[in-house]
Write a structure and sequence with these properties.
The structure is a homodimer. Chain A is mainly alpha-helical. Helices cover about 60% and strands about 10% of the residues of chain A. Chain A has eight helices and three strands; from the N terminus they run αααββαβαααα. A two-stranded antiparallel ribbon of chain A has the order 1-2. In chain A, a hairpin with a 5-residue loop joins β1 and β2 (about 75-85). Chain A is elongated and about 70 Å long. The first copy, chain A, starts with 11 loop residues before the first helix and ends with a helix. Residues about 200-210 of chain A have low confidence and may be disordered. At the A-B interface, α1, α4, β3, α5 and α6 of A face α1, α4, β3, α5 and α6 of B. β3 (about 105) of chain A pairs antiparallel with β3 of chain B, so a sheet runs across the interface. The first copy, chain A, binds a DNA duplex through α2, α3 and β2.
DNA sequence: CCAATATATGCCGGTTAGGCATAGTTCTAT
DNA sequence: ATAGAACTATGCCTAACCGGCATATATTGG
């Protein structure tokens, strides 16, 4: 099908996969997943294998990507994808649309903290400590990958975004640390609440029950 | 079915909805959505209406929540849900489990920036500016809601988490501002790349084409 | 040389979001 | 006073999406 001016309708993940291809290399589905874990993951989750493979099939059926089967020796082949001219155009058109969908944040750690009224304070502390350390590990990974990206001026925007990610995880780490310092005071305050008893009791009962 | 010690298997959203009920009030599905927009949203997306209603049905079928139909005047009724003792126990047991699922972040703004090599620099600047302002608006809302939560010591953990959210959106705003200051340098650097031409050309062509 | 790990792809079931439909209710502005 | 807008309240359907599982072959290290 020839290029028409309308931007094809794709889910965000579809654009992300096409974006991965837009750097110009010919990649297999497996390569794309690793690529995604390398860069995309720090700010846009990382699509699952199954998602990547099905998006690739859709991109190809829309003419935004094309593939060829690379056979080495004899039988075993892998499918290598590359972006088409139409794909480049579509991607540019998509990025030029004004609408940017809102940031999705699902923060399991904060969900647990928010349910502090049914938890043990020590457990909250443990979760937060773990999250702080995890954030620092992510920061370091972003830093390493950013340094990797800085060798090539064609990756200037990747480098920019990874610098952002480095700060993101540093901030995340610092907020966890700060929250740790506020936790005791919160627990104390909560226990002055008359309603605290019942919830507290339930958690206590559970512990007895499981022991 | 009677309480067994095993924690029932629920998706995170199910626990979040049960968590909303765990504050002790009797609420309709609609109330829950508003409640979620008021607190949950700042750190854990906000489940859609359909999701909330179907989770409520599941919670009830699992015995973790119960409902009664409130009729006013005559016919029109709404279903009011409350948490059961078993629900309280299950929630406490769930929060006490080690595993916390990883933070999900899907940052559409950074996705666009990452694709800077197919975009117009002015457009990137516009997106980023908008995001900075949006973050500040979210910060203010979190601040307002935190102040609302501070009146009741039973909401101490909600207040704690909303304080975190306030900082989160302030940090988000500041990172956007910082990135704005780095954008020109990145664009300049990118244009020194020999590969920049082709991508740039594609975007240019598109603009001509649409004009 | 065998085991472990990596490459490579796909299916399936369950979770989730978002749009749409519906219907009664309360508020608001002319 | 009343039309229309906005809010309350619930549910259905489609498409998106993840994670687990299954299945190969390929490479690497002990």
């Amino acid at each position: 099908m020839p290029s028409d001016d309308a931007i094809p309708s794709l889910p965000p993940t579809g654009w992300a996969v096409l974006g991965l291809l837009s750097f110009g290399e010919e990649l297999s589905g497996y390569d794309l997943k690793r690529w995604a874990d390398w860069s995309l993951r720090f700010f846009y989750w990382s699509p699952s294998f199954s998602q990547i493979y099905s998006e690739l099939r859709r991109l190809e059926s829309n003419g935004l990507a094309a593939s060829r089967i690379e056979t080495r020796d004899d039988v075993r082949g892998k499918r290598m994808y590359h972006i088409t001219d139409e794909g480049q155009r579509a991607l540019a058109a998509w990025t030029a649309t004004e609408h940017v969908d809102p940031v999705v944040l699902k923060h399991g750690v904060m969900l647990r903290l928010w349910l502090g009224h049914v938890s043990e304070p020590e457990h909250l502390r443990a979760i937060l400590t773990e999250h702080r350390d995890q954030s620092e590990r992510m920061r370091v990974r972003a830093e390493v990958d950013r340094e990797g990206a800085s060798v090539e001026p064609g990756w200037a925007y990747t480098e920019l975004v990874l610098r952002w990610a480095e700060r993101y995880y540093a901030d995340e780490r610092d907020r966890a640390e700060l929250m740790l310092s506020e936790l005791d005071e919160t627990t104390r305050l909560f226990q002055t609440s008359p309603a605290a008893d019942s919830a507290r009791r339930t958690a206590e009962e559970l512990r007895q029950h499981r022991a």
